[in-house]
Amino acid sequence: RAGGGAEAEGAGEGGQEEAPEAIVARLPPTALREVYAALLKTSAHPFTLEPRARLMLEIHELREWDKHQRQLVVHRQACHLATALGQEEAAERLREAMAPGTLELVSLQEMMGGGGA
Question: Which of 104, 112, 18, 89 has its CA nearest to residue 8?
Fold first, then answer.
């Protein structure tokens, strides 16, 4: 009850909030297919480690690697979706939010000698 956001569903404070389903429903079917395909193809490439490199990481480093990799994929997917919905400002904020995790992945990849060598 304290949040109130889910209860108001679309009514929004100030009338600006719209249900995500309503926004997506306005997209033409071809755009929906393209978005779906882009979401499926989204990967953390080029941030991959060979199995041997994964074995060399300590457990906390491996957890960090996996966390940052998953986060990168989610951010990339959200960016695709925001762009498809014409939400360029949101897409830009998502790109900015990707930077710290991406730098962490670069750092760990270089530490493992996986930087293209």
Answer: 18
Q: Kindly state the tokens that stand for 105.
A: 């992945």
Rounded Cα–Cα distance for residues 73 and 47 (Å)? 11
57: DSSP letter: S
Predicted pLDDT of residue 77: 93
pLDDT in tens, 6-65: 444 444 445 577 887 888 888 888 888 888 898 899 888 888 888 888 888 888 888 988
Given its phi and psi angles, is residue 78 left (phi above 0), alpha (psi -120 to 50 degrees) or beta? Answer: alpha
Q: Is 7 left (phi over 0), alpha (psi -120 to 50) or beta?
A: alpha
Q: What angle do CA 25, 28, 34 make, to 5 degrees?
A: 105
Q: Is the pTM here over 0.85, yes or no?
A: no
What is the helix (H) or strand (E) element at residue 9, kind and residue range? Answer: none
